[in-house]
Specification:
Keywords: Membrane, Methyltransferase, Transferase, Transmembrane, Transmembrane helix. The structure is a single chain. The protein has seven helices and nine strands, in the order H-H-H-E-H-E-H-E-E-E-E-H-E-H-E-E. The protein is α/β, with parallel strands linked by helices. It has a single domain, classed as 3-Layer(aba) Sandwich (Rossmann fold), CATH 3.40.50. The relative contact order is 0.10. The structure holds S-adenosylmethionine. S-adenosylmethionine binds next to helix 4.
Length: 275
Amino acid sequence: MSTHLAITLLVVAFLLLLVVQVVILFYVRGALTGDEASEPVDEEPQPHRRTETAGLVGRLRRNGAEQHSRTVREIEALIDLRALVPARTTMPSTQGWAASPLTVSALVREVLETRPQLVVEAGSGGSSVWVGYCLERNGGGRCVSLDHDADYAAKTRADIERHGLTDYVEVVHCPLVSVDVAGETFQWYDLSKVEGLDGIDIVFVDGPPGTTGPLARYPAFPVLRDRCAPGARFILDDAARPDEKAIVHRWTHEHGATVVDRTPGPLGCATVRAD
Ligand SMILES: C[S@@+](CC[C@H](N)C(=O)[O-])C[C@H]1O[C@@H](n2cnc3c(N)ncnc32)[C@H](O)[C@@H]1O
């Protein structure tokens, strides 16, 4: 082979290699960037994308405004509560699992206005302290607060002692047991642990937690109704949650309860009359 032919073949081979590299590079770039690689970066958003973005921004604004409005209402309720029910020492927080200021306001209003002899609370905590102060201010009445959790019951008991309200509030540790309501079984408080639950005027339903089973708070009305005084009220917390909506529906449709009040708030509460 002549030197000239060898050089020509080398150049052709080099050019072929170059073409193959360019083709490979082109495909790799396409795979990494997708279709966008071929779109101009400063292209105007499509009309449907502009509408979607505007809708999202609108929803965020509305959610923000609603959230702000709720927070303000909760703060106003807490300020009113503090003025209405002065405490001797620091109150438990209204955050976390505790009843919100708007729910506590509904409960406090009910206790101060109706001057109950007996309040039963399903789920103890900060609400027990608020009720204790209201009964003290009323000059009588007692609250029996049920808690399925021994540690939590002890914590609430300590709060009641710290506030000097043991004459008004008794916290009872009631483990959950199987309770039959018209052929359905629920996990609910073991009432054999409590004495003297007759003539109930107000039931505050804030337990057991939903984590203990579906419609966990449903048994409160069917189980306690026969132990209630005429005109008794049940206040159900978190009434806007799907489970609690279903509970109110069943209380009213299956057991003849009447909804007499609903409060706003993140989850709100519903007050129903037993007769
Ligand atoms: C919704 S809480 C009751 C809150 C109470 N009524 C109040 O206003 O503070 C229902 C039950 O959940 C349990 N509990 C309360 N706080 C909890 C927490 N941070 N973590 C787990 N369980 C809690 C307690 O046993 C309580 O009886």
